[in-house]
Amino acid sequence: MPRIARRVSFPVLAAAALCLAGCSAAADVSPVEVGDAPAEATVPGTALSIGDTAWVKVPGASGEEELVGATVLSMDPIDADRIEGFAQTAEVASRHPFAIVVQYTWTPVSEYDSTARTVPLIPLESDGSFAGWLANDVGNVAMGDADACGLTLPEPKDGTALECWVALTTGADLGGVEFNGTSRTATFPDEDHPYAEQPVTWKP
């Protein structure tokens, strides 16, 4: 069955806020060194593991596309009790939560460039279909409480930022995450994106 057949809409669950680095306390996760950006983006269809970096083009601070690195640092099960508002609905309470920690790396356009970049990743069930993820009550907005994952993350600095968001699976296992060119703020996938049919994937 073609991949596009299962790309109807994204299973977003509005139950709690996601997190983007923003605490001044000692960080629970530290950034890793990924080196300079390559000349070209990562080839569509590349399969990666935890700790590997994909470089993809995303809209930058100026509105033009720029090359940003995404390094999946961990994809670990998380205790639902650590997520405020997690059990608000029976649908959400029946899911299995995973904390997805991702590092983003980019080249600041100047010493005054403090805009954090992100690369939208989509969680996968163990069978390869889309899993859900937590969103706040505004919709699938991937920003919010920095403690949503129960982790303290460092402030964005010198072209590096860490993010943690919560994936929700129907089964006990997470199949991984993928970059397919569609934002988690979208209702439907971008079927025309060059990574739509050949996403970059990270497996646990």
Remind me, CATH topology? Immunoglobulin-like
By secondary-structure content and strand pairing, the structural class works out as: mainly beta
Q: Largest sheet, described in full?
A: 7 strands, mixed
Work out the helix count.
1
CA radius of gyration: 16 Å
Mean pLDDT: 78
Tell me the total number of β-strands.
Answer: 11
How many discrete domains? 1
- The low-confidence runs, each spanning 5 or more residues with pLDDT under 50, are 1-9, 14-24, 136-146
Oligomerization state? single chain
Note the beta-strand portion: 25-35%
CATH class: Mainly Beta
Amount of helix: under 10%
Helix and strand element order: EEEEEHEEEEEE
Describe this structure in words.
It is a single chain. The chain is mainly β and 204 residues long. The protein has one domain (3-37, 46-203): Immunoglobulin-like (Sandwich), CATH 2.60.40.1240. Helix content is 2%, strand content 32%. It contains one helix and eleven strands; from the N terminus they run E-E-E-E-E-H-E-E-E-E-E-E. The protein has one helix at residues 90-93, and strands at 12-14, 19-20, 47-49, 53-59, 65-77, 96-105, 122-125, 132-135, 160-169, 174-179, 200-203. It is globular, with a radius of gyration of 16 Å. It starts with 11 loop residues before the first strand and ends with a strand. The model is unreliable at 1-9, 14-24 and 136-146 (pLDDT under 50).
